[in-house]
Amino acid sequence: KPAGDEILNGHNNSSPPRLIRAAFMNQFENLANVTSHYTSTGPEIYSQLDGKVDAFIMSAGTGGTLVGVGAYLKERFFENLQQKHRMLSQSPPRIILVDPPGSSLFNKIKFGVAYASQQSERKLRRHRYDTLAEGIGLDRVTANFGLGCEMISWEKKAFAKRINETSSDQNYEQLSNNSASTTLQSKIIDDALSISDQQAVHMAHHLLRHEGLFVGSSSAMNVAGAIIVASQMPERSNIVTVVCDGGQRHTSRFWNRDFVVNEWGLKWPGDNVTDPLEHDILHQLGIKV
C-alpha cells in the first residue's frame, strides 16, 4: 500500500481485524530511490574528489545507488565538456557493475540479455541460493536499474528529465530543466565484472586483517571490483566504491567458517598456512603484477 494508507489486518479468521498504518516503499521500482542518489550521494562524491572521478564501481540490489551516482557523475562531466570548463579527466567516468554468481545483471550489461547459466532448463531451483552474497544480484531488471541500461542524451539535467518521463505520476518537476539538446549520448552503466564468492571471501578477510574493516559480502565484492578496475587504469586514477554493509549481519553464512567450507565448498583464508600466496589479495583476484 502507498505510504500512510490504512489497511485491515487479522492474524486468523477467528481474530477480529485491526486497523494499522503501513508504508510500502517499493524500493526496487520506486524511482525516488535512484533520484535520492542522483541528488545526494553523487554530488557528495563529486565534491569530495573535486570533480575528478575516473570510475565508480559497485554491485546492485535495487540498482538505485549505482545508477543515481553514475548519472550524476556523467552528467557533470558532459556539462563541463560543453561549457569548455577545465577538465580534470579527459574521458567520462567509467560506471561499472559488480555482480555475484547467479545474477543475470552481468549478462544484461555485457550482452543485453538478463540471463545467468543458473537459470537454464533443469538448473533453476525452487529456492535459489547461487551465491554467498546477500542483498545484491537479481534475475530481473528493476525500474531503477533499467534506467542505467538506456541511452541518455547528456544535455543539462537530461537524466532528471528522463526520470520525469518515466514517472509521470511522481513529482520530480523540480529536477527537470529545459535546455538545448546535444549529440553526446551514452548509457550510464558502461561495463560489468563478475566476482566469485571465493574472491569476496578473500577480500573480506584481507580488509579485516589489513584495514580493520569487518565488512559484509556486498562490500567485499565492491572493493574487489574496485581493485580489479584500478589495476586496469592509469596511475593516480580516482576509483570510487561503496562499503555498504557490516559483517555483523553476515555471521551465519559469509563469516561462518563451517558454512563457507562445508556447505559452500570454499576455502577459508588462513587455513592453508603453507601457501605463500594465501594472503596475496592481488593473486586471489587474478591480478598479475
General form: globular
Separation of the first and last Cα atoms: 54 Å
Number of H/I helices = 9
The helical percent reads 25-40%
Number of separate structural domains: 2
Please identify, by name, the CATH architecture of the largest domain. 3-Layer(aba) Sandwich
β-strand number:
8
Protein name: Tryptophan synthase beta chain-like PALP domain-containing protein
Organism: Skeletonema marinoi
Pfam families: PALP
The gist of it:
This protein has two domains: 26-115 and 133-166 and 181-194, Rossmann fold (3-Layer(aba) Sandwich), CATH 3.40.50.1100; 197-228 and 246-288, no CATH class. 34% of the residues lie in helices and 11% in strands.
Structure description:
It is a single chain. This protein is of the alpha/beta class and 289 residues long. The chain has two domains: 26-115 and 133-166 and 181-194, Rossmann fold (3-Layer(aba) Sandwich); 197-228 and 246-288, no CATH class. Helices cover 34% and strands 11% of the residues. The chain has nine helices and eight strands. Strands 7-4-3-8 form a four-stranded parallel sheet, with helices on both faces. Helix 1 crosses helix 2 and helix 6 (197-211) crosses helix 7. The protein is globular.
